[in-house]
Amino acid sequence: MLQHWELGQALRQRYSSFLNTSYHRQEIYVRSTDFDRTLMSAEANLAGLFPPSEVQRFSANISWQPIPVHTVPVTEDRLLKFPLGPCPRYEQLQNETRQTPEYQNKSIQNAQFLDMVANETGLTNLTLETIWNVYDTLFCEQTHGLLLPPWASPQTVQRLSHLKDFSFLFLFGIHEQVQKARLQGGVLLAQILKNLTQMATTSQFPKLLVYSAHDTTLVALQMALNVYNGKQAPYASCHIFELYREDNGNFSVEMYFRNDSKKAPWPLILPGCPHRCPLQDFLRLTESVIPKDWQKECQLASDTADTEVIVALAVCGSILFLLIVLLLTVLFRMQAQPPGYHHVADREDHA
């Protein structure tokens, strides 16, 4: 929480001449994933960003004011919780990724190491895709000053860190990175570009839009932008998009990444563009990773529904056909039987 409060203070300092000194609801919009930790992170950040003025303090003993943080249920979140799903096409790409030489070699190289970690932790079915859970636990314990178990030597923790970095690459890269981006980080990027475009065309849009989410959210976005450094982001990291109006009336975008509280945010450069990238060039250069119709590209909903309807109609049609054939057979046999004819059983029938 302290790190996010300090991030809020850093943002206050960076945008002191851009934002009002006091909180105004029309000036900022905040959205978080529906997890306690991300909601709390957003609130801590806002406490540092907007310390209450005297008139906004509801108690002399509390230097804090409530600021709304919006969210949606996890099952409905199609913007910030990654990887997005269900998405059959993405799962197909992941299965293809598992067959690549890079993934296969990494699995072979770390097979014994994964077995060792499984034995020490009691976890079963540890893979390159699930080992991040072990590293996350050790990282949290280490960050909060807790003593790590004897098997978790510095060398082991470092190797786990490398494997977690690889798990991020597996999720959003290695194989068909652009296609994965269209189904994952490109969804968030599309919303951010829409925000920037609206900010450039209307003065009614909030000055500051904030998203509070997860490390996978950050990686998905940066992989879509092709600016990811391949390393796990530390707590309270922040990817910044800044929109500038030039003297000629056109707009430009600058990106920064704050991953070290002791240093100024690092400039991020979109491949193919200078650091201050004209907005129209930014839109053009990222067009390939923006989905046109996410559900259609995921092979979801309509395709699945159409298939189910076709199957249902085929089954019903087959049943109806059989009933008609049966009915015609019965009618034919009734007409073929002479009137008044009765079958008389003889002895051979009972032999």
Describe this protein's structure:
- Belongs to the histidine acid phosphatase family.
- It is found in: Lysosome lumen; Lysosome membrane.
- It is an enzyme of class 3 (hydrolase).
- The protein is an alpha+beta fold and 351 residues long.
- The protein has 3 domains: 2-81 and 187-291, 3-Layer(aba) Sandwich (Rossmann fold); 101-174, no CATH class; 302-350.
- The protein is 48% helix and 9% strand.
- It has helices at residues 2-14, 36-49, 88-97, 101-109, 111-121, 132-143, 154-172, 177-183, 185-201, 215-225, 279-285, 294-297, 302-336; strands at 28-32, 208-212, 238-245, 251-258, 266-268, 277-278.
- The strands form 2 sheets. Strands 3, 4, 5 and 6 form a 4-stranded antiparallel beta sheet that branches.
- Helix 1 (2-14) packs across helix 2 and helix 8 (177-183) packs across helix 10.
- Residues 303-307 and 339-351 have low confidence and may be disordered.
